[in-house]
Every structure is written in structure tokens, then in C-alpha cells.
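Structure ticket #2291
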Amino acid sequence: MTNAFLFPGQASQFEGMGKDLYDADPLAKELFEQANEILGYRITDVMFTGSADDLKVTKVTQPSVFLHSVITLLSSNKGISPKVVAGHSLGEFSALVANKTLSFEDGLKLVAVRANAMEVACNKTKGTMAAIVGVEDEIIEQVCSEIEEVVVPANYNCPGQLVISGSEEGIDKAIEVLKEKGAKRAIKIPVGGAFHSPLMQPAQDQLAAAIGEAHFGEPIAPIYQNVNARATVDPDEIKTNLISQLTSSVRWTQTLQNMIADGADNFYEVGGKGKVLAGFMRRVDRSIPVESL
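Resolution: structure written out below.
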């Protein structure tokens, strides 16, 4: 069997996340306390007792999701190791810890830089995102390209579901046009800004500087990256793709399709509640189960 580890991104957070790990496992407790020191505040207080609204703040959400996934993996006693990995948006950083490209400490530091930079970019340039269901990708791509405002395909989540991102005006116009073209659903989603669009350029610049200073080791397993849905073990290519990811589309549908085509047949979703990415897989290939790790 070829084990494939999948790591969720933003929107997989939930109230009380990680508290069971902290209470039950000494290694998990040690890692959470290390994270508090690295971040300079007790993120565990927000994760364990914060409200859903507290956990929606980008600069909190991203390290919380990263920590939950990575500590779930590192404290697991199942003895399962990945042959290939992939992560949805933020989850790519978790995947890079899983395949030993990044250390736990460096991964968390980069996630913190990314989250803070994205929060600033969101506050500076207002934008939003919308989920489009029931329209072919090619039609959505064409509609986005014909709108003068900033609006781009952001997340190719699964067949029949694509999230677009851009300015408020661009998204409003795209929703209007796509409803006319038969979209079953075309609704804005509650996010802090226009992720995976050109409006994230200021955040990309900050992240690029931080990635340039971080140590990227030789991976023990290939990672399928969001920007091109292809596997790589080249640290330099990984860095380039990781930087590009902030303003590029997340090609998750294509990632799952390529992993399956390349022989992955035993999938695990690591972190969150083990449901988001499993749901996407059902739309890609219903015959392949995704277990929670």
C-alpha cells in the first residue's frame, strides 16, 4: 500500500481543538507548550477555550490548524508513515513537517509569519471569496477572466465546487453572472479576505523573506504542491511553490487525481475533524476511503 497523508487548511478549526491531545499525551503537551513559547502568547488558551469567532481570526486560525495537525501526527502511536503527502493551502506547511522538509519549530514560525502577513493584507485591501457549485471549471475561469475587477479561481476543491477570490466588486459581479449561467449555488463565504488572489501580494513578499531564511531539508517523501498539483522532493522547488501559493490557485482536485494516478491508495486526513478533505475525495473518487489519523 502507498500511504498518502492529507493535511487540512483554514476552515477546519473547531472549538476545543487539541485539548484532548494536551491532556492525554506528554509529547503533545510538550509541543503545545513549545508552541506557546515560539509564538510569544498562549495560543493553547484560544484553541482549548476560545469561541468559534476567536478561532476565525486569521492570525490565530492558521497556527491553530497547523498545530492540531502536526501534533496529532507527531503524538500518534499508530506507526504509520507517509509515502506521499499533500496539504490544502495552509496544510502544505503541515505536510512539509510530516515529510521532514521543515522542523516543527521552523514550520510554526513560517505559519505565524504567513498568518500575520495575510491579516495585514486583508485589512489593507478589502476582498472576499465565494463558493461556486454546479458549474464547470472552464465556465468559471472564463467568467473571472472577463471581469475587469480582481476576481480569480482560488480553490479547486473537488469536481463541481470551485471557490473564487477577489475584490468585493469583482466577486459580486462574478456571482451575478455565474447564477445566470446555471450555478446551483454561488455564495460568499465568511473569510477575512481574498486568499489565493493577487490581493495577497504584500503578504507573499513577507513570506518569501521568511522562507529564504528558513532551513529546508531533504524530504523523506514527495509532496504534491498546490500551485501545480505535481510531486516534488526538490527543496528549492518546494520553496518557490510555497511562496507562489499565496497568490495562486489551490489545485486540490488535480492533486488528488494525480496522487491516485501515481499509485496512492491508502489515504489519511491528519487533523481537523477528519471530514473536510475526506468529503472532497468522495467527489473525486468515491471508491477511495479517507481515514482520520
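Closing remark: The chain has a mean pLDDT of 95.
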